[in-house]
């Protein structure tokens, strides 16, 4: 029988999925280059700071711009690698194990010997002097990872939930000698970006960093029969907070109108009012503005005609 990770859909999860889905509808999927850059820097800073990298966002920016930075050489290398790994987001297939290995090789280039391959030895997570997680034996790792990817390929779970479950299960397996946190977070972003491209631009890692203690706790209290329910709730909360607190581009009313017209050029004013959530008079005002500025043209009669986007 194929593997199914244990978790429960709680009311909190359902509510967060609804809240995030609603919020995401108001954001641009298109690239805004300045924000893309700002948010990518926040992402890289956040995901590396969780693991103890000391570079500031200014230093991460300098590395991105190819400027010299006074900092430990391996930390600068971590930043370079993470920047390259996040640049791969458009080309990686979230359901391919080979692509995971490729991402890991990029994330760990020049830092450890075992790059782009599963660990050969034991692994664990240590807090102070205490081992808080003993990862499964190395021989089992390829099978466990394959089972997890098979689940990801075939599940009809909502991507918001599936990506959190994947993230937790991945950290539990701890497939690599190092870089499990960074690669797991990258993979969740990858899965989410295939659902809504805006996720490439959302610095979720930055908010995870803000709640680093809670992130570790959510992993620690997950597991057993109850599965990763607490972790799913935690990460969905982080995504919801990212959507409300970070600088991301909101769609304007006119952009929503143009999108609706692109889908249906004969859409009526009343229908547009429904889509945008404003009055028909409000729609009229925006249609006039769009026509005046040359973005939109009416062809044919008022009743039977169509809109043409210029
Ligand atoms: N109790 C736990 N069980 C499993 N995984 C955990 C637990 N607590 C934390 N983790 C995960 O393990 C990650 C740390 O693993 P690992 O050291 O391989 O990652 P990393 O990206 O290389 O970090 P570092 O730069 O510190 O080496 C954390 O970021 C978190 O995702």
TrEMBL record:
<dbReference type="InterPro" id="IPR036390">
    <property type="entry name" value="WH_DNA-bd_sf"/>
</dbReference>
<dbReference type="GO" id="GO:0006355">
    <property type="term" value="P:regulation of DNA-templated transcription"/>
</dbReference>
<dbReference type="InterPro" id="IPR036388">
    <property type="entry name" value="WH-like_DNA-bd_sf"/>
</dbReference>
<keyword id="KW-0547">Nucleotide-binding</keyword>
<dbReference type="InterPro" id="IPR036597">
    <property type="entry name" value="Fido-like_dom_sf"/>
</dbReference>
<dbReference type="InterPro" id="IPR011991">
    <property type="entry name" value="ArsR-like_HTH"/>
</dbReference>
<dbReference type="GO" id="GO:0005524">
    <property type="term" value="F:ATP binding"/>
</dbReference>
<feature type="binding site">
    <location>
        <begin position="215"/>
        <end position="216"/>
    </location>
    <ligand>
        <name>ATP</name>
    </ligand>
</feature>
<dbReference type="InterPro" id="IPR040198">
    <property type="entry name" value="Fido_containing"/>
</dbReference>
<protein>
    <submittedName>
        <fullName>Uncharacterized conserved protein</fullName>
    </submittedName>
</protein>
<dbReference type="Pfam" id="PF13412">
    <property type="entry name" value="HTH_24"/>
</dbReference>
<keyword id="KW-0067">ATP-binding</keyword>
<feature type="active site">
    <location>
        <position position="174"/>
    </location>
</feature>
<feature type="site" description="Important for autoinhibition of adenylyltransferase activity">
    <location>
        <position position="51"/>
    </location>
</feature>
<feature type="binding site">
    <location>
        <begin position="178"/>
        <end position="185"/>
    </location>
    <ligand>
        <name>ATP</name>
    </ligand>
</feature>
<dbReference type="InterPro" id="IPR003812">
    <property type="entry name" value="Fido"/>
</dbReference>
<dbReference type="Pfam" id="PF02661">
    <property type="entry name" value="Fic"/>
</dbReference>
<feature type="domain" description="Fido">
    <location>
        <begin position="95"/>
        <end position="237"/>
    </location>
</feature>
């Amino acid at each position: 029988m194929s593997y199914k990770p244990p978790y429960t859909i709680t009311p909190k999860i359902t509510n967060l999925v609804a809240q995030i889905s609603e919020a995401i509808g108001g954001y641009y999927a298109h690239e805004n280059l300045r924000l893309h850059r700002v948010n990518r820097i926040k992402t890289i800073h956040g995901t590396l700071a969780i693991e103890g990298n000391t570079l500031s966002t200014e230093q991460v920016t300098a590395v991105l711009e190819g400027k010299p930075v006074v900092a430990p050489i391996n930390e600068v290398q971590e930043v370079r690698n993470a920047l390259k790994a996040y640049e791969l987001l458009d080309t990686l297939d979230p359901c391919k194990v080979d692509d995971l290995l490729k991402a890991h090789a990029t994330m760990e280039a020049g830092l450890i010997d075992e790059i782009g391959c599963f660990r050969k030895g034991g692994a664990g997570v240590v807090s102070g002097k205490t081992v808080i997680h003993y990862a499964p034996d190395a021989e089992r790792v390829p099978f466990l990872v394959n089972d997890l990817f098979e689940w990801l390929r075939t599940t009809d779970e909502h991507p918001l939930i599936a990506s959190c479950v994947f993230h937790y299960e991945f950290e539990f397996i701890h497939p690599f000698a190092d870089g499990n946190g960074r690669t797991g977070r990258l993979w969740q972003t990858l899965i989410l970006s295939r659902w809504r491209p805006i996720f490439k631009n959302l610095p979720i890692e930055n908010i995870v960093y803000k709640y680093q203690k809670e992130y570790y706790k959510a992993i620690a209290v997950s597991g057993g029969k109850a599965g990763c329910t607490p972790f799913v709730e935690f990460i969905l909360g982080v995504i919801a907070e990212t959507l409300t607190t970070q600088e991301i581009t909101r769609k304007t009313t006119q952009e929503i109108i143009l999108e609706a017209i692109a889908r249906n050029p004969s859409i009526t004013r009343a229908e547009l009012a429904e889509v945008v959530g404003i009055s028909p008079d409000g729609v009229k005002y925006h249609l006039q503005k769009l026509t005046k500025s040359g973005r939109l043209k009416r062809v044919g009669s008022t009743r039977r005609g169509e809109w043409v986007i210029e």
